[in-house]
From TrEMBL:
CDD domains xref list: LDT_IgD_like_2 (cd13432), YkuD_like (cd16913)
InterPro entries: Big_10, LD-transpeptidase, LD_TPept_cat_dom, Transpep_catalytic_dom
Domain L,D-TPase catalytic: 238-370
Protein name: Lipoprotein-anchoring transpeptidase ErfK/SrfK
Organism for this UniProt entry: Amycolatopsis echigonensis
Signal peptide segment: 1-23
Entry annotation: catalytic residues: 328 (proton donor/acceptor), 346 (nucleophile)
């Protein structure tokens, strides 16, 4: 039997019995009449249809249907990869539906066999073509796909293309939390979007993020890439409050004060050679920590041979911004910790206090900095999301514009 390529988006039936050697009913009846006997009419052959067959979204399934019989076998293969496509047969064996995600711009070869009520098989061959977009915008997670985080957890997505239709894309995101909490999306730029609740997450929350942009047109000829999902656990509440005026840091565990320590923040005086290096004001969150590292001023442009260059080992380092701000031990400033701000932006402590914060504060835990004399922490400088007011955060949603 020759292969037939399916065209069009509708359900196109292919009648396959016309050339399959069915009985000539009228001729048989005439012959039977001559002999004084009658013959029952032949059972019509089953027919098979594929729907749809052309420009199929890879998010939608390939559907194979049988009429006048049941499906005996269905095989769908992507000849470009050699991979078979899995599918499920309906209880009445008249419909087969693919269960795998398809690929963009692919041709799938379909071979289906149906049998009629008399058990006569009919085979149908054809092709199904998925749409080929101008480009595919693939999302990646702003945080790992799972993990244990503090109440300052910020989640989100980065796309590898700029998004033209942000509102459509945003509608396709789903964030659920247990217990339920009010939250919203904020577009950092044309390809990155963050989500946070109005207030810090409640301790013990479970937060789940899912995308459904795959196969979706998202503007500018782009379609969504493979979907991603993540589940986050929120541990106990750990919040530190660092005050540049009192030169003290206080720590709260589930709302209870558990630690007070003297600190030295970034200097605000125009001290050569670098000038003022104040700590950023606003809510920071812990990004990472390491028990020992080498801090090198060349990372911000003051390199060996320049005035003010340093390259020094530091212990109990808790990173709170991308701009090189840490809570850490600094024995050189112990004499002014609690009375003066002299650091290059970090929160300096003695060994005992630095070790305590290192042991107790983890990724997503909160460090609120006030009275530092510095500018507000920016959203792209770690997790400056919390430094944005809730009304401004809501205005950053594509659905509020």
């Amino acid at each position: 039997m020759r292969a037939i390529r399916i065209a069009g988006l509708g359900l196109v039936a292919f009648l396959l019995a016309s050339c399959s050697g069915q009985t000539d009913v009228e001729g048989a009846a005439r012959a039977a009449g001559t002999a004084g006997t009658t013959t029952a009419p032949a059972v019509p052959a089953a027919t098979v249809a594929f729907a749809p067959s052309d420009q199929l979204s890879p998010k939608d399934p390939i559907v194979v249907k049988a009429s006048g019989g049941t499906l005996q076998a269905v095989k769908v293969v992507n000849p470009q990869t050699g991979n078979s496509v899995a599918g499920d047969l309906s209880p009445d064996k008249t419909t087969w539906t693919s269960s795998d995600h398809l690929r963009y711009g692919a041709t799938y070869q379909v071979v289906a066999t149906a049998v009629n009520q008399a058990g006569m098989p009919t085979e149908q061959r054809g092709e199904v073509h998925t749409l080929k977009p101008a480009g595919v915008a693939t999302p990646s997670l702003f945080q790992p796909a799972s993990g244990d985080f503090g109440v300052g957890l910020v989640i989100g997505l980065k796309f590898d293309h700029d998004i033209a239709d942000k509102a459509t894309v945003e509608k396709s995101f789903k964030v659920t939390s247990s217990p339920e909490q009010d939250g919203g999306w904020y577009w950092v730029n044309k390809h990155e979007v963050h989500f946070r609740p109005k207030d810090y997450w409640k301790a013990g929350s479970t937060v789940k993020l899912e995308t459904t942009t795959f196969g979706m047109p998202i503007g500018g000829g782009l379609y969504g890439g493979p979907d991603v999902s993540a589940t986050y656990k929120v541990h106990d509440s750990w919040i530190a409050k660092a005050d540049g005026k009192t030169h003290q840091i206080t720590a709260y565990h589930n709302g209870q004060l558990v630690k007070t320590a003297p600190i030295s923040m970034g200097k605000t005086a125009d001290t050569p050679p670098r000038g003022p290096t104040p700590t950023f004001n606003g809510t920071h969150t812990v990004l990472a920590k390491v028990d020992h590292t080498i801090m090198d001023s060349c990372t911000y442009g003051v390199c060996e041979g320049d005035p003010g260059y340093y390259k020094a080992p530091e212990n109990w380092d808790v990173r709170i911004s991308n701009d090189g701000e840490f809570m850490h031990e600094n024995l050189k400033t112990v004499g002014v910790q609690g009375s003066d701000n002299v650091s290059n932006g970090c929160l300096n402590m003695n060994t005992e206090n630095a070790k305590w914060f290192f042991d107790n504060f983890n990724v997503g835990d909160v460090v609120e900095v006030t009275n530092s004399g510095g500018p507000q922490l920016a959203i792209d400088n770690g997790h400056g999301d919390w430094a944005i007011s809730w009304s401004d955060w809501q205005a950053g949603s594509a659905l509020r514009g």
